[in-house]
Each structure stands twice: as structure tokens, then as C-alpha cells.
Amino acid sequence: MLKTFSLGGIHPPENKLSARKGLKDLPLPKMVTIPVSQHIGAPAKILVKRGEEVKVGQLIAESAGFISANIYASVSGKVKKIDQVVDASGYRKESIVISVEGDEWLDTIDRSDILNKTIELSPQEIIDKVAEAGIVGLGGATFPAHVKLMVPPGKKAEVLIVNGVECEPYLTSDHQLMLERGEQVIVGVQIVLKALGIDKAIIGIENNKEDAIKHLRMITKNHPNIKICPLKVQYPQGGEKQLIKATIDKEVPSGALPIEVGAVVQNVATIFAIYEAVQKNKPLISRIVTVTGKSFSNPSNWRCRIGIPISHLIEQAGGLPEDTEKVISGGPMMGKALTNLDAPITKGTSGVLLIRSLEARRKEMQNCIRCCKCVRVCPMGLEPYLLMQLTERNYHDRLEKEDVMDCIECGSCSYTCPSYRPLLDYIRIGKKDVGQIMRSRKK
Amino acid sequence: MNQFVISPSPHIHSGDSVQKNMYRVLFALIPAFLVSALFFGWDTWIVTAIAVLGCVITEYVIQVYLMKVPTTIMDGSALLTGVLLAFNLPGNLAWWIILLGAIFAIAVGKMSFGGLGSNVFNPALVGRVFLLISFPAQMTSWPRPKMFNWTDVDAGTGATPLELVKQASKEGNVDQFTDSVGMIFNMISGDVGGSLGEVSALALIVGGAYLIWKKVITWHIPVAILGTVIVFTSILYFYDPTRYVDPFFHVFSGGLMLGTIFMATDYATSPMTYKGMIIYGVGIGVITVLIRVFGSYPEGVSFAILIMNAVTPLINVYMKPQRFAQPLKTV
Ligand code: SF4
Ligand code: SF4
User: Residues where FMN phosphoryl threonine occurs (chain B) (predicted)?
Assistant: First the structure.
């Protein structure tokens, strides 16, 4: 029996159209737009001025606090302007626009592909390096990665869990990374283990990526402390709490962090970025992005510099199909619908999904028939139909008692509801209201 | 310039729908319908047709002319209520009584609460109990099955197995049924007196298995009901086999199978969590046996389900699903 999490879960069609499509470098556009807020936490402080020349790998905006991240130039050229630009989230964000000239790198960066296995830095130096390189959770959460490497006093890390699940339908960027950069990922795992001062790592991979499982197993043959853990395909297994439950069978209590059960979770792409930062002195200036869709001519995986407009990626990869009616940044379950195709690829962009007109619109909602299917699929054991009802009526006390804050916004409930009820839309509103009330109570 | 659709996630849907679920239940009723038609001939077709038409037209009229809302008759739920009502009626019932039952089922049992999903009681059972109370004589004269003998209009009427047992229990000689293997066989295959849909336990079980396979229903409610009935009647049977009939008889007789698989599992009127479903099922099992054995009616499934329907909102308040982990104790 393959491992998986025990409560709820769904199995949407996988549609991994771009699986096993080799990584290619995306050609540079004429202009890139780099927002200073690509992470959870304070926006970075801009260090460059209009007209300034920058090189690839140069620091252009500086972390503005503990929970914040450095931003580096991903191209060489001239700072054209500093402006408010609508990004993938639909909000205007302060951004640095650079017009591309050539491709000149800082010479401190090791651009070779040679695998470097010897870890020279000390644990503290590794953490500093990760912070300096501006690395954030690349699975989509974009939480600064160095914060997770610093175990709070009184807690003890026991195991590093690497998230290679990629449970979102369509997306294949992590899969391809594990296939093509497996060695680097494993060195990255060792780096993180060293930083945490622990010895045990588990890499969770869903069973639909058998080649990646085999590949990593081969590489880790001589590393008995790194275990590859195949998991039964089930959404939302990539959720932190679900992954911990699936791999080490522990439940992170409501409102607590994974460290409570001794676990530190990092995404494989983040681990790869840590490898590059520590071993190659390369800050986070690019990432792997899947571009895909049912009527898209060339579903594929690309190495993209941060700041490249999504429209450029679509064009280079095959062009926008006629019948596209919705464009999503991320996967179909948790991704965001884009208002504007010129929004830049940021640190958190794992994929771009083009949805056909057939599937772009929601059906009209009907009455709740109380079939309880939403309750059955909720991975947190909540009652989505009830949370929606309570939100509609503004019963905030009841909402809090019904644990609305535990919702991980996975969307399994809305996906399943036979009456097409927009359960998660309402639950988000309920969460926001209850969150505000809870914060004001603390003050 | 913005030609794209914007909406919050998730951006895909399972493709499940109310219609799909309703039509799957209807599909699961086909075997029972065919067996019924085999035994009761045209009566099955006629009673079902009248009940279905009554339900669908009532829903249409109420929605379009009274509530002035778009009609939902295409979702299959009124159709299903009609079929289930018909399955709970004797085959020789007068057409106007059937029609009354159908109108009552939809108008009072469903629409007065606000339509599908808002009703507290199973509409088909509301219709049936209304008829049982209003027309007790007509509702309890069961035509004998007339297998392969469709043209024989005058087959006469007979008692149901449960009625026979009720009578015999008063006389203290119930054990005559326990030894009659033939009767059990007839009950499983359907060759017994009773309402249209109660006849063949086997056909109903086939339908139930299909529904569980297709994830339209889960096993919790049927297993809880049948388990409770078996345990409860076993205790009684071993206590005094001359007064109480054996559990096997109870499980396969009367409307238990129909009620268990198709009526108690009705979405709107059953609990929302597994724990709740088990309690609800146990409740139905206990009440059914109590009515059958100690009550004045020979059959109690309908009442048991309606009573537990009424308890369902309360069960929903107290029976929460198992949450993912408990919250940290705040220090
Ligand atoms: S979105 Fe929230 S309520 Fe809905 S299934 Fe996921 S965790 Fe449960
Ligand atoms: S899945 Fe939809 S129809 Fe079913 S109980 Fe939940 S909200 Fe109601």
C-alpha cells in the first residue's frame, strides 16, 4: 500500500501534458519587470536609480526585515523606470523595469554546469547565504526560505521533508527538475540537512512520476539517510500538513507550524535554488515554469529569468491559442486567473495554464442538496457547506468555532460540489472576517 | 483589451451534478422496477406513470405559477420522488389516490420547505404516510403477485408476510415461518404480496451496490440500519422464537430494503457526517423493529425514517466530522 494522507482528498484528471518535456532556456525579451514584493513579508527596498546600468546577479532591492527577501537583476541592461505594475495577483506593485542589453553576468557567479558536491560553508554561513540569495518557497507559498531553516528556540528539528509531490494537475516543473537536476537536488538536501544540524531527509514524490522516483533512488543509493517516499496520487498532497501526515504520519496541530512535530518542509525547486546559491554563488534570478493547456500547441517546461512577461513565455513556447478564455498563473486548483498577460514571471510562478473557452466559465450555482460530498473531500475535516452558510449570514462566532481558519484553501470542496456552489469563495471571505476579529481581540 | 475570464480558484470542476446523482439513483431502481413489472404487470407501469406525472407537474406548476422561479423539474428529483412514491404503493390503488399522494408529496413534503435540499422529510415518504393515514383500507389491500399472468385482472388480494407474522405473533406460533424456506426464497426473489417496490430484495441490493460503486451514496447508512435490525431481532428471536420471527425474515421482508437503500439515504434528509449517518441508521433500525414487533402497524420503516429525518438537524449540530489534528492547547 502506498502512503498518502488519510482525511478527504480528491483525484482530478492529472493532465500532465508537459511531462518529460526537456528544460529549455527561454530567450530574453527586450524588457523585464521585477516587482520588489515577490514574497510573503515586507517589500524589498530599491537600491537602483533610473538610468543605472545593472548586470545579471546584481542586488537591486534589499530585504527590508527578517521576513523579506533580496531581489536581484535577472538580466543585464539599463534601469528604464521604477513604476507601479500590475502583477499576477492583479494588484499594482512597485517594480523595477529593466531594458535588456546583452547578457552580462557578475563574475562572482559560477555559471558552469559542473556538479559541486563538497559543502564548505558552516551551518550559519549556509543560512546567511540562503537569506542573501533571496530564496523563497518556490512551490508557490513564497515564504522566505532562510526563516524555515532557523529552528525557533525550544523546538527541535528531526526530519527534513522535501516536497516533490506536485499534486496540482497540469504542472510538471518540479518533475522535470528532479529528472534533469537530480544530483544537484540531492546535494541541496545535504546542504539543508547540514544547516539544520540533522541527518534525516524524506523526499515525497507522487507515484505518477515513477521515473523521477527511480532516478532519485539511484542517486541516493549511497545515502541511507535520504529516503525517497513514493506516495499515492491524491490532491492536495502538496499541502504542508498533508505531506507531513503522508510521509511521517504526524498531524500538525491547528494553528501550529510543522516544526511542532519536528518537521521542516521545503519544495524541491527551493532545494535546487539553495544548491545554486551555496555551491555556485548564484542568487535566485530564474526558475522553472511549465506552460501548458489543452489546446496549447507546445506544452513544455522552461527555465525563465524572473521578470519576463508571461506573454513572452507564451509566445516563445507556441503562441496563444484562439480559444483561450482564461489564463492562470499556477495550477488549476489554487492558481490565480490573470487580468493581464504582461504580468511578469515572479519567484512564485510555477506554471502558466491556458484554459479553453469550454472550461473557462463556472456553471450557475444551484441549491445545496446536502449531499455531504464537500464534507467527505475536505482534507482538514471541515464542513464547507456549513462554513458557506455561516459566512452568508455573518455568523462569525460560529465560523470560528467551526474552525474556518484551518481551511487551507485547496478548493477540493468547490471542485466536488454537484450544485456548483462557490464554497471556497465564501469561505475565503469568512476567513478574512474571522481573522480580522481574532487579531483585533489580541490587541 | 481584457478579454479573459477572471474568477477565484479552483478553476476546474469534477463534472458532477445534481442531475447525474438523481439519474444514477433512477438507474439503480431499474432492476427493482423490472422485477415489479414481472410480478404486477401493467399495474407497475400505470402506478409509476401516474405518480411521476403527478410529482413533476406539481413541481412545475408550483415553481412557475406560484413561486415564479425557473423550474427545476429537469434535475430529476421530482421524477425520483414519483418513482419512490409509486414503489411504496400497492399496485391496485385508484388513480386519484395516487395523484393525491404525489401532489401532497411535492407540495407539502418538498416545496413548502423551499424545494430540493431544504426539505426536512423525505417527500416520497411524506406522500406515502399521508395516504396511509387518509386511506388505510386501500393502502393495505395488497394484490397478489401474478407472475406471467398479466391479463388476469382479478387475482384477488392477500396479506404481506409481515402482516401474517403480526397475526401469528399474537397467536404465539410464529415459528411456522422460520421453517418455511420457501417463503424466504420468495421474499428474496420478489414473489410476495406487498407494495410495488418492496417485492424483490435482490433487485434492490443490486441497485444499492451500483450506487455505492458510483459513490452516489456511502455504505454507512445501509449497513447501520441492516446491522441494527439484525442484532435487535436476533436478541428477540433467541429470547422467544415462538413469538418473534428470525432476523433473516425481518431483513428481507416489507419495505426495509427499499427504505434502507433508497429512502434513508436521501441526501437532503440524512446527516452530513459519517458519525451522524451511523447514529441515524441505528435509530432507523431500532424504531423499525419496535414498530414492527410491538407497534400496531405491521410495517414501520417509513415511520422510522421520517422520525429520524426529524432528528437529522440535531445530529448535524452535534456530530462533527473528524478534524485534521486537534488545536494546540493554548498556554
Ligand atoms: S478549501 Fe478549505 S474547506 Fe474547502 S476542501 Fe479545502 S480545506 Fe476544506
Ligand atoms: S457538495 Fe455542494 S450540494 Fe453537496 S453538501 Fe456540499 S455544498 Fe451542498
Answer: 160
